[in-house]
Amino acid sequence: MFNNLSQKLGEILDKLKKRGALSEADVEAALREIRIALLEADVALPVVKDFIAQVKERAVGQEVIKSITPGQMVVKIVHDQLVEVLGSENVALNLVTNPPAIMMVVGLQGSGKTTSTAKIARFLKTRKNKKVLMASVDVYRPAAREQLEILGSQAEVDTLEIIKDEKPLEIAKRAYSKAKLEGYDVLLLDTAGRLHIDEELMEELTALKKAVNPIETLLVADAMTGQDAVNIARNFQEKIGLSGLILTRVDGDGRGGAALSIKAITGCPIKLLGIGEHLEQIEEFHPERIAGRILDMGDVLGLVEKAVETINREEAEELARKAGKGEFDLNDLASQLRQVSKMGGMGSLLSMLPGVGKIKEQIQGAGISDQLVKKQLAIISSMTLKERKNYKLLNGSRRRRIAVGSGTTVAEVNRLLKQFQDMRDMMKRMSKMGEKGFKRQGLRGLLGR
Fold this sequence. Notes:
Elements: H1 3-18, H2 24-40, H3 45-59, H4 62-65, H5 70-86, E1 101-106, H6 113-127, E2 132-136, H7 144-155, E3 158-159, H8 168-181, E4 186-190, H9 199-212, E5 216-222, H10 227-239, E6 244-248, H11 257-266, E7 270-274, E8 282-284, H12 287-294, H13 300-310, H14 313-324, H15 330-342, H16 345-350, H17 360-365, H18 370-381, H19 385-389, H20 396-406, H21 410-446
Parallel strand pairs: 1-4, 1-5, 2-3, 2-4, 5-6, 6-7
Antiparallel strand pairs: 7-8
Helix pairs in contact: 1-2, 1-5, 2-3, 3-5, 5-12, 6-7, 8-9, 10-11, 15-18, 18-20, 20-21
């Protein structure tokens, strides 16, 4: 997300940072380029105009022009204004009510509404420790209720039993009764959608909202549709009233216009981001962290949170023990690669590191990608259990067999094994050096130089 915008803003602001002094003309020239970059990112024109006006008001001032680092000051002003446009602060899902907290999930067909419902349920169960019940009131789309039931099974979240010929309101009331009687903390209602907004849909949603009085009415919008997502959000906000937004498919949206426009135009906060197809790939929306990613400042806090959520402490301690004794094998490497996938993939992790935008071409040239992780897992899966335990068994004929079995080349198998051996050697050195030795010798000692 924001790849194109991030690259262009980075180039514009880097030119400012390289100058020792800035004139008003320099700042205005940069703002013209920023304006074009935002418009090319499909940010709504009113939002762009206001953004540039706010930045200009603060940047074309004596305290900036005459400061010791005027370029850095302008970057900070742009960052702060991005945070403002995105919503200033994180707005979490509201759970402050007598249980069950009812949440209505609304949106058009194809926006990822049902999958998002299951993602939210899993998020609330695993990260907020809530007992969740899901119910589909979509009686129009074929197998919509069955789809939620399957997703519920995958997410290990309860779903309401399906009874044929029930009306949406009857389903909602039965779901509420079950949630109340059986002590659920949250009831998620997956509502019906349409291919486009119509009065019949809005009337049904309004009636449903009036009957169940949800604490959250969440609109699922597809980030890939850009300004269409903004217009849809505005219509839903005007017709039924929203408490929050969930942007889906942000991993495929290179522009980011919807995220940068939707809060400013609807006044409704983005609460969650769908960052992939898997049920665990959903995260809370933090404006400051997103602004940091856009300006290539990284999101180290987000990276740490992902690690805490996905890494099993006992497994990590066992890995450290094995590494220290030189017992790290290819099964352990496969486990680490799967952890990378769980944390959102290589692309998602790299986007959270500061300064990655500046070495993007080198990363692409080195072939570091989610595809590489899949290939490496396929290579390890094509090995026998003995080979994974003892890589020294892998002679030329075995490597050829593994390459054929994994759909890769012998060169790719060799490359993986070289990386694996380098990792083993580094882990051994770290174990021998200890914490004090590492502090004294640093990376030079670690790399054996």
